[in-house]
Amino acid sequence: xxxVLDVFSIVAIVAGLVFFLAGTVGLLRxxxxxxxxxxxxxxxxxxxxLVVTGxxxxxxxxxxALKLVLVWLLVMLSSGAVSQLIARSVRRxxxxx
Amino acid sequence: xxxIVSLVVALLLLWLALWTVVARDAFVAVAGFVVYGLLxxxxxxxxxxxDVALTEAAIGGGLTGALLLGAVGRLRGTEAAAWSERSGACxxxxxxxxxxxxxxxxxxxxxxxxxxxxxxxxxxxxxxAATGVGxxxxxxxxxxRALDTLLEAVVLVIALIxxxxxxxxxxxGGRPGPRYGADPDGxxxxxxxxxxxxxxxxxxYLFWAGADHPGGKFQSATILAAMWMLVQMAGLSDAPRIDxxxxxxxxxxxxxVFVAVGVLGAWQAGxxxxxxxxxxxxxxxxxELALLPTLVLVLALLLNGAPARSADSPPAPxxxxxxxxxxxxxxxxxxxx
Amino acid sequence: MTVETLFALCACALVxxxxxxxxxxxxxxRKLVAFNIMGSGVFVLFGALAMRGAAAGMxxxxxxxxxxxxxxxxxxxxxxxxxxxxxRLIESTATASLADEPPSGD
Amino acid sequence: MTGAPEGGTTRILAVRALLYFALWxxxxxxxxxxxLVFGLLTSAVATWASVKLLPPASGGVRLGQLLLLLPRxxxxxxxxxxDVARRAFAPQPRxxxxxxxxxxxxxxxxxxxxxxxxxxxxxxxxxSDGTPEMIEFHCLDTGQAVVEQLAVEERAYAxxxxxxxxxx
Lengths: 97, 337, 106, 168
Description:
The structure holds four protein chains of four kinds. Chain A contains three helices and no strands. By secondary structure, chain A is mainly alpha-helical. Chain A has one domain. The longest helix of chain A is centred in the C-terminal third of the chain and has 35 residues, at 62-96. Chain A is elongated and about 60 Å long. By secondary structure, chain B is mainly alpha-helical. Chain B has two domains: 1-74; 132-322, no CATH class. Chain B has helices spanning 2-22, 26-46, 50-75, 79-84, 89-111, 121-131, 136-144, 146-164, 187-209, 217-233, 245-268, 280-304, and strands at 175-176, 307-309. In chain B, helix 2 (26-46) packs antiparallel against helix 3 (50-75) and helix 10 runs parallel beside helix 12 (280-304). By secondary structure, chain D is mainly alpha-helical. Chain D has helices at 9-28, 33-53, 63-89, 110-120, 146-158, and strands at residues 98-103, 125-130, 134-139. In chain D, helix 1 packs across helix 2. Chain D is elongated. Chains in contact: A-B, A-D, B-C, B-D. Chains B and C meet through helix 1, helix 2, helix 3, helix 4 and helix 5 of B and helix 1, helix 2 and helix 3 of C.
């Protein structure tokens, strides 16, 4: 049973890392600030989600697992809000120029 | 494996430091410095200093970064002039020579350090039980080297007085910084409404956990101060007048209680800041509780800066002092490319 | 090489890099950033020495580590005072130059 | 978990206090009595702050309905992430970026902010600006049916909101 869980963890975390890589590649390759924001928020969110999912079976206890989920929720709250703030500030600067 | 991770972290740190120092644009340099601070907390984790890592991430990277970013915005106009005063090739060559020599001498000292290394860990471990706290760092900060921590709190208050004293006379007693007027229905305001209660729970947890686990009043105070700054930047509450009584009382309460406990120790335990037998833990809790408001206020107000407007003439609500944020008419119509 | 030696040597290089920036960069804010990097080099060196002192079941000597927390907080306070001074300098002289010249205005 | 639309202020406050205390327990993870007492104090402070910052009168949320949104949200995150990753790794990133105005039904306020937040994490959209009647989204691919997709999301989301006073 524990082998199955370990394999699950490894697969999920590696998949999460692939999405982090995708976010970084997108950040470097996409043409402007907005599209880079898409790359960062969406790919990295999925990356964090997968890493958290992969770590869940490794935690001892439900509370510790909930703490990890809490981290994921806070990351989403901040990335969702900050991406909007950046998008808005870029938009206003473009329009006032 | 872990050795490779350490090596990669060390190389990245050096590269970032170099980049930060030589970057042409001041904003780029400060952004690099913030990332440098985060990487530095990884270094602290590798050096077995979780408490230091938390402090570095919160204060070294976070607060200092916010302070410098604010300054960059206001110093933008002076950058080009300063760049023209750039030192010549001769000075730069001399600087390289000097820096390399200093680094080399330091490195030679590191490589010839005495064996076995001197340490106070056994003494700390031996006497920790007497303090009643489980985290040795907290034990050092509030029992073995309590005088350092008292002086540190005093230094913070003096620094704040120093910053305030730079206010022009006409603004003395006024409010620091610009009055922020973010969009009341914008996402920043939403964040400032939703996040602070969560930040309060996490911050107070760090405070409470500091007795037995990594954490403590400095890290906690940083989170609470950050929440207060978020509320200010969203325009939900204004920066306080620096002549208000409650503010000044909150700023000095920590050091005053600390000194009072110290005097009590001189009377009861025979030494300034000595704790009577069995009373160490409650005394430490009292000091920490009194220091928390002082630290929150001082850290946030240091970030706010010197008073820059009089208290009795608040600008119209919604007015923003960030000149770059001009509102624009909203173009109508569907998709634009 | 042990972790603490690696980071101690890295810290020496950080001090050098910070010192270089402190001398070469003309803008006071850049000098401040460079000085902070130099300071962090000193901190890391001290932290590496703390880890060398690991004993009695502790992963590092807690006394230098506690002093490091104090140091980081005091460094922030000093940086805040410097930034305030700098902003005041620009407000009253309209320049951030540190060159030797008679101050203009105010 | 349905709070009353009006006169339920106490109820909303109780729910919030309970949530903050649950947060404390998750973060603290020890059942020491002293920690629990300090946790109660902490959640009281947090509730006080939340009353100051987000008065309960501005409308509540049906927590049960919100939980029903969760699987949908997780699926959308998965789609969003893979979509961006596919484009990032493509030999020629096929993007058709542009702005789309979405006529929004939700009134301005916390409820709409939360919708913007969720929509910014959905595939292909980031909120970039807005007026009282509409939200401007930046889209990765304007060739997709963005407005229709957002309308579906908004309907699902609006069910989780209690009717709130439309005072902006």
